[in-house]
Design the sequence.
């Protein structure tokens, strides 16, 4: 790997909002130009990521086990969890919708949680393993994050639209809240993660070498 | 995590003061996973507690039941859902696994009953029409037991009475089911107050047990002195009052039914408990007759033929039936090389005016035996008698026989009291005939013959004197009679003169008759005229005709 000079090594740091360069010792003070707080890294990044990640993981199980909505019709009512909804759609012949819901609601959250977990663990142990790939994975997490909200939107839309009390009702169940919380918490976790932390151990490694 | 890499180790003295707020702020961050964990846990616990018990219900077939779709409903409220349907190992039935909701966990008790609600047409009407649209569901009758149970046998037909209907169930023992069926009505004074809910053959096959349900408030009319009877069918009775036709109602004739009423012979009883046991009599008369209580058995040994005597034949005391024959056997006596016929009979002491065992004032066994002893000493015996000369039916009569010899062995045999017997009526007849022959033998026929000869001689003498008497009559009385006849003829002649045609009395009579005829003639003329001219009565006769 080519030796690189980082901002830290150069003794400067960049304003996260207006990109103005400040001396490194100004850490914690406000930017001269825009007044944003100056930090060399996102403050408390690892700790916050851990917190949001653990919270998301704690809610992941109920989000998938609990029913997310109840659809009531004249002929009886049906309560669906995310997985049973996917199965229902698949059996119904809506393979495309089933696949989309399956990806958005099950694959993506698991992917995000798994990647973030891997990232925080590797950063925590100051691993120097494949920093490029890890950074790319983080970019992917950021990119797909918003798509996992599909299910929550569906429930919210249906619940507000289908209000023919006698004939048909759609009622959100606790699972929807848990699911929404998982989505929001993973977004927050990925937001609070600072990808530059992936590279910090490398600098130390280089120094030692 | 306390060692922050972005804070250089050689910091200015002012720096720790600035970092203080960030000391407790990061710890706030940990609140998020804690809150999330608590929320997640509470969600999970909620759903765990909302899950309710899982129960297995076996049905003969899974017709209309779908896994993951069919609901369990109580009063049209969903209380559970079918999770899976499995075939039993022996393939004789299906096992339906049902997950109840948490608030329905009270349904998973011992006496809850489950059945499949689907459209049904029965004698009592059409039911389950709503399931035509919504599909079948599993109905529940909530049990009241406290015993938890998670395995049930589903009913094939909906129960007649659900547990939430107030009322009581009673158990009736009957000889046969008659025309009863599940759903047959129960009547109290011909008011429909309940239904037959179940019946079953007794274990020993010697009768049936019928369960009836009587709705509240009528269930309070079932008391400890209540009697039940089959009101099915028609009861045709011919007695001294004439022909009587008894039915409860037309529907009982078709469907059968059970009626009950308090026995008029018993004091008013307490309201009966749930599941109280009663006898179900064949008809009202049987149900309401005075109860006999437990019978006392005794054995009677007869030496003569018991042809015509059958089990159930009456035991009669001066015309009152006090018991019945239970069994007839035969026994070889080695000591005398003879046969005797043991007849076991059941007496009902109450019919003899004695108190039933168990009642206050009833005789205990010893006292009963002592009384029997006294009665036997006074000549009480059993005797076979002919009840019906045409059919040859026999019955056993109990009576006092003066001078009957005391039985050789008064005691027990076959574990029963032995009741002494006396030869039957036919044997008695034979004995009497022998008596008569004996007496005839004692008649002094030769003496009678001698007397008879003497009498005949006397009679001959009498005849001779009679002859003499006739001769004398001929001679003396006959001339007198001839003279009398002469006088009589004279008298008759005089009478003839009086009544001859030219006799003066006859002349007068003829004249009178002629006058009378003339009068009648003129009277007829007058009436003829009046008939033609009735006005002449008022106006007189018209002039021109004068
Ligand atoms: Zn700036």
Sequence:
């Amino acid at each position: 790997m080519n030796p690189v000079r980082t901002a830290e090594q150069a003794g400067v740091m960049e304003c996260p909002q207006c990109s103005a360069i400040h001396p490194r010792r100004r850490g914690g003070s406000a930017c001269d130009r825009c007044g944003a707080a100056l930090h060399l890294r996102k403050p408390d990044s690892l700790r916050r990521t851990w917190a949001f990640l653990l919270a998301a993981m704690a809610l992941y199980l109920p989000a998938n086990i609990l029913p997310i909505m109840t659809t009531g019709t004249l002929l009886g009512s049906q309560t669906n969890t995310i997985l049973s909804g996917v199965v229902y759609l698949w059996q119904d012949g809506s393979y495309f919708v089933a696949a989309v819901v399956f990806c958005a609601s099950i694959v993506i959250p698991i992917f995000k949680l798994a990647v973030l977990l891997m990232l925080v663990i590797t950063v925590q142990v100051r691993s120097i393993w494949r920093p490029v790939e890890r950074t790319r994975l983080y970019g992917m997490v950021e990119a797909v994050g918003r798509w996992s909200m599909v299910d929550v939107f569906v429930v919210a839309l249906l619940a507000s639209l289908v209000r023919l009390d006698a004939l048909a009702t759609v009622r959100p169940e606790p699972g929807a809240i848990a699911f929404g919380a998982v989505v929001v918490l993973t977004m927050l976790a990925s937001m609070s993660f600072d990808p530059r932390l992936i590279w910090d151990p490398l600098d130390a490694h280089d120094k030692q070498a | 995590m306390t060692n922050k890499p972005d804070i250089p180790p050689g910091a200015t003295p002012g720096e720790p003061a600035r970092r203080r707020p960030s000391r407790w702020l990061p710890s706030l961050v940990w609140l998020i996973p804690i809150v999330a964990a608590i929320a997640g846990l509470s969600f999970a616990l909620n759903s765990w507690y909302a899950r309710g018990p899982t129960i297995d219900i076996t049905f003969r077939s899974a017709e209309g039941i779908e896994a993951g779709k069919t609901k369990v409903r109580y009063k049209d409220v969903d209380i559970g859902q079918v999770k899976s349907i499995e075939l039993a190992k022996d393939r004789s039935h299906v096992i339906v696994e049902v997950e109840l909701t948490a608030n329905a966990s009270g349904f998973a008790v011992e006496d809850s009953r489950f059945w499949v609600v689907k459209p049904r047409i029965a004698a009592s009407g059409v039911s389950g029409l709503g399931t035509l649209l919504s599909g079948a569901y599993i109905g529940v009758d909530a049990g009241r037991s406290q015993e938890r149970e998670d395995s049930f046998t589903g009913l094939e037909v909906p129960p007649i009475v659900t547990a939430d209907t107030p009322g009581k169930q009673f158990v009736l023992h009957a000889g046969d089911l008659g025309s009863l069926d599940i759903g047959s009505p129960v009547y109290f004074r011909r008011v429909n107050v309940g239904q037959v809910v179940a019946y079953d053959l007794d274990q020993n096959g010697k009768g049936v047990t019928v369960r009836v349900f009587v709705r509240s408030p009528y269930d309070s009319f079932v008391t400890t002195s209540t009697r039940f009877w089959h009101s099915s069918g028609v009861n045709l009775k011919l007695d001294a009052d004439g022909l009587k036709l008894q039915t409860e109602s037309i529907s009982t004739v078709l469907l059968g039914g059970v009626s009950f009423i308090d026995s008029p012979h018993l004091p008013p009883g307490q309201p009966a408990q749930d599941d109280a046991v009663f006898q179900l009599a064949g008809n009202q008369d049987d149900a309401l007759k005075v109860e006999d209580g437990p019978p006392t058995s005794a054995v009677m040994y007869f030496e003569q033929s018991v042809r015509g005597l059958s089990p159930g034949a009456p035991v009669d005391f001066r015309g009152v039936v006090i018991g019945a024959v239970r069994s007839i056997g035969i026994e070889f006596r080695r000591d005398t090389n003879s046969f005797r016929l043991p007849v076991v009979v059941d007496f009902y002491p109450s019919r003899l005016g004695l108190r039933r065992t168990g009642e206050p004032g009833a005789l205990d066994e010893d006292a009963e035996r002592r009384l029997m002893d006294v009665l036997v000493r006074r000549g009480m015996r059993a005797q076979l008698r002919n009840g019906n000369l045409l059919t040859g039916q026999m019955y056993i009569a109990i009576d006092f026989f003066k001078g009957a010899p005391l039985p050789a062995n008064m005691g027990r045999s076959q574990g029963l009291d032995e009741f002494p017997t006396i030869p039957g009526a036919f044997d008695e007849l034979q004995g009497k005939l022998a008596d008569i022959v004996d007496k005839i033998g004692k008649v002094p026929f030769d003496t009678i013959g001698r007397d008879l000869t003497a009498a005949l001689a006397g009679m001959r003498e009498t005849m001779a004197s009679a002859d003499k008497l006739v001769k004398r009559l001929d001679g003396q009385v006959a001339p007198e009679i001839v003279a009398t006849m002469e006088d009589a003829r004279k008298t008759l002649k005089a009478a003839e003169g009086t009544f001859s045609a030219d006799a003066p009395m006859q002349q007068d009579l003829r004249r009178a008759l002629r006058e009378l005829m003339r009068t009648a003639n003129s009277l007829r003329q007058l009436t003829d005229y009046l008939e033609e001219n009735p006005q002449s009565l008022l106006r007189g006769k018209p002039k021109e005709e004068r």
In short: Residues 1-5, 7-21 of chain B have pLDDT under 50 and may be disordered. The longest strand of chain B covers residues 77-87. The longest helix of chain B spans residues 445-498. The CA atoms of residues 528 and 534 of chain B lie 10 Å apart.
